[in-house]
């Protein structure tokens, strides 16, 4: 069986935009990557549940926003439908709801969260409906001089938008009313932790936040009644004796809810944690080298037999085989070249 994936990149070097690749599950091998769409700095991607559309953050001159693509089912090529841009830097994260109706993005440089509407029938992405700017700062003067929104995504029940701000150390909850973002709750995480990304347990009751500055996973209880979050555990992703620069990046969970994976840029590893199924708390299992420099993202394939990591600075994809019983990773391949890879996604099955 073969699975198609897409990679968002920085185009500051040799990259041309969005790349596509194939995982051959039987051969346990990744194909060479090829350009699927030309675009300036499509660093983050998301795919609609029905696989018809791919959305990417986009940059054009002094403006940034979101671009919508339709996908050719035979070739995997992407055809740009249209893009919606705002003045200022481009976003760093984009998500789409389960109905492929609303898209939300997080803008690190502007400290804002934006919402957009998609009309699937006319294949049209409409201009931003709502823009919310965060306020505040954190104790890290180099990285937390002001708000730096880093993640915006829909809660599993699709009732709310959870947004993370690295600059203010906050997790915000928004209610989306006809595309309008209305803040209903916020949680202040440990000062200076620099929260970056979030993933939910399949039970929809527990969330896991990866911090970029303190290199921790924060375990949270999620209340779907009012959209609030409460802290319950902080656990480090790097060894206690590691003193060099490290910045936490991506976090994902297996669909059975048994294992959480978190990437370390600097230590250049993926930390593996087992999940207590009674309370969602984590226990450290192992760390595996990403066989490259600066792992920006990773993804589990649709069978979750494999994990693919992207090393931004060494420009390579790495394929691991995953043990579903222990959660541990075994290196299979590390020679697939992609210039400045950031985000990696598989089509839904």
Word description of this protein:
By secondary structure, the chain is an all-beta fold. The chain has a domain of 150 residues: 7 Propeller (Methylamine Dehydrogenase, Chain H), CATH 2.130.10. The chain is 0% helix and 57% strand. The chain contains no helices and 30 strands. Strands 1, 2, 3, 4 and 30 form a 5-stranded antiparallel beta sheet that branches. Strands 9, 10, 11, 12 and 13 form a 5-stranded antiparallel beta sheet that branches. Strands 5-6-7-8 form a 4-stranded antiparallel beta sheet, with no helix packed on it. Strand 28 and strand 29 form a beta hairpin. It is globular, with a radius of gyration of 19 Å. The termini are close together. The model has no long low-confidence stretch (mean pLDDT 97).
Shape: globular
Oligomer state of the chains in this structure: single chain
Quickly count the helices: 0
Class of the domain at 39-188 in CATH?
A: Mainly Beta
> Order of helices and strands, N to C?
EEEEEEEEEEEEEEEEEEEEEEEEEEEEEE
What is the CA-CA span between the terminal residues? 12 Å
Helix and strand composition category: mainly beta
Flag low-confidence runs.
Answer: none
Number of strands: 30
Largest pleated sheet = 5 strands, antiparallel
The CATH superfamily of the domain at 39-188 appears as YVTN repeat-like/Quinoprotein amine dehydrogenase
The name of the CATH topology of the domain at 39-188 is Methylamine Dehydrogenase, Chain H
Instruction: Work out the strand percent.
Output: over 45%
């Amino acid at each position: 069986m073969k699975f198609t994936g897409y990679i968002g990149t920085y185009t500051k070097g040799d990259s041309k935009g969005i790349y596509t690749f194939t995982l051959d599950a039987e051969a346990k091998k990744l194909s060479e990557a090829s350009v699927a769409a030309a675009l300036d700095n499509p660093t983050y991607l998301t795919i609609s549940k029905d696989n018809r559309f791919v959305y990417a953050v986009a940059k054009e001159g002094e403006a940034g926003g979101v671009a919508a693509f339709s996908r050719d089912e035979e070739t995997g090529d992407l055809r740009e439908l249209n893009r919606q841009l705002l003045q200022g830097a481009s976003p760093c994260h984009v998500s789409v709801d389960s109905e492929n109706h609303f898209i939300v993005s997080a803008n690190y440089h502007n400290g804002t969260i934006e919402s957009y509407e998609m009309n699937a029938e006319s294949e049209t992405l409409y201009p931003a409906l709502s823009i919310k700017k965060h306020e505040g700062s954190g104790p890290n003067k180099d990285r937390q001089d002001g708000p730096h929104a880093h993640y915006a995504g829909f809660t599993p029940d699709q009732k709310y938008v959870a947004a993370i701000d690295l600059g203010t150390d906050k997790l915000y909850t928004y209610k989306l009313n006809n595309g309008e973002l209305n803040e209903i709750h916020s949680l202040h995480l440990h000062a200076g932790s620099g929260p970056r990304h979030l993933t939910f347990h399949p039970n929809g009751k527990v969330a896991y936040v990866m911090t970029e500055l303190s290199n921790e996973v924060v375990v949270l209880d999620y209340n779907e009644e009012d959209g609030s979050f409460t802290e319950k555990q902080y656990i480090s992703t790097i060894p206690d004796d590691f003193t060099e620069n490290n910045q936490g990046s991506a976090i994902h969970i297996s669909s059975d809810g048994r294992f959480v994976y978190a990437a370390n840029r600097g230590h250049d590893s993926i930390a593996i944690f087992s999940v207590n199924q009674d309370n969602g708390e984590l226990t450290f299992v192992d760390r595996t080298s990403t066989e490259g420099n600066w792992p920006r993202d990773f993804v589990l394939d649709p069978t979750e037999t494999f994990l693919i990591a992207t090393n931004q600075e060494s420009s390579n994809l790495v394929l691991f085989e995953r043990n579903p019983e222990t959660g541990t990773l075994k290196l299979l391949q590390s020679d697939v070249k992609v210039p400045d890879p950031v985000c990696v996604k598989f089509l839904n099955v």
